[in-house]
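Quick one: structure for this chain?
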Amino acid sequence: MNGAALADQLNADLSVEQRVALLPRPLRMQVLASLELHTLAYDWAWTRRPSQFIPVLPADGGENFSTMALLSGRGGGKTRAGGEWVRDLDRHWSKLGRAVGPLRVALVGRTAGDVRDTMLQGESGLLNIYPPSEQDKISYVASRRSVILPNGAMCLLASAEEPDQLRGPQFHISWCDEVAAWKQVRGQGNLDAWGQAQIATRLGTRPQLLVTTTPKRVPSVRKLIADAAVNPLVQVRRGKTTDNKHLAQAYLDVVLGLYAGTALGRQELDGEMLDDVEGAMTTQAVLDAYRVDKLPGGVPWMKVIGVDPSVASKPHDECGIVVVYITQTHPVLKRHAYIVDDLSGRMSPAVWGERVVRAAHEHGATVVAEVNQGMALVKQNVMQAAAKLNVAPPPFRATFASKAKAVRAEPIGAAAEQGRLHVVGSFPELEDQMTAWVSGDSYSPDRMDGMVHGAASGLFPMALVNGTPGSATTHVPKGRVDTTRIASRDQRQRPRIPGALEATRIPVGFRR
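Got it. Here's what it folds into:
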């Protein structure tokens, strides 16, 4: 490497460890000989990149922010940065003079499982970044949702799904992870978890909030970026997945193979906020315009679980599982569909089968599943899951998708433009696919596909006979009477009674 290239590398966002590795060998060996190598694995000053450093001491600018948002791509090192910030504050708290008594911390994640598995026990989680000599000084009591750190900091664990967990307690600092992926569940006072965290973080002379998230076009992140433009106490930092040189090449191959060159890749890999994506099913503005906090009352419902299955035992793609309620009103083309829940994820058939059955029983819904892959095996998987759970198998509709995903999504996008598609709360991963995926992208929009199957089954008059316009064909399970086909045949034999045809087209097996 010539001198100019070395200078460029040393000016990049590299850790001290990475910079030392770039030195000529004699100089590198001289530096390493002066260090206690066995301590470096837990020395954040050695392994952090400059963009990951969140100052704690006043001399470093530790009091120069009230809210900081680290917006970066997946695997960019956000979790490690958040954990090390809490660790540094615990170490220095007694001499900062910001409050009397121990540091009180809120650790808030998307779900209780995310707090436990990522923020605490993950490879870069808070419980794993302390050296072995300090591990026995940490007290984690899961039943009390609490962690006591080596120097006395008291941490309370909270889930964004239960925002009222943050109502009452108060904190000096809060670390809120993956805020952009939080479901907008509202508790008392009509506040979600982000609103509650902002109110609860009020102790001491400098209350501070740290947000670590991959950016998505949700109100909380948009407001943070807007506030940072006018308020110096609100700071935003950005990073990319590829900034983290510690990531395994196998992981990089997967995420780059999925998202590189796509609009969603700018968000998931580069940490950018997306504008409207030409060719996507809909726009974020349309979803926001018709978003609701709760379902309307006094409406007869058609309840469905739209499923885009994954048939591999170790799936690469997700299984799309989306709960949709459709108003069982007439005329059919004025019905409204409400996205009630997104239960999608990467799961084996056994796992997603159980999840589908549980959701069908919880909502009293019919399963509408694509069977292009697996054919009868998809239905069989649902039936086996019901038997394993010792419950009655849910009503099942098999859908064969005969057109491309983009074509199937078009009529649902048109319904969204008409104000006939509503999101109840917020489902960021699903909304990402609805507003960013375009035909030709390398990843599969399985969440969106599950939603399309569910919504199409009730929004269009002939959806369960001929498919959504240019979309899919639904096969009737053996032993059921297809009243839609009977209605279509009888229409040729007798005069049409206004409203009768739409009424008979309500699919058999759907629960009201």
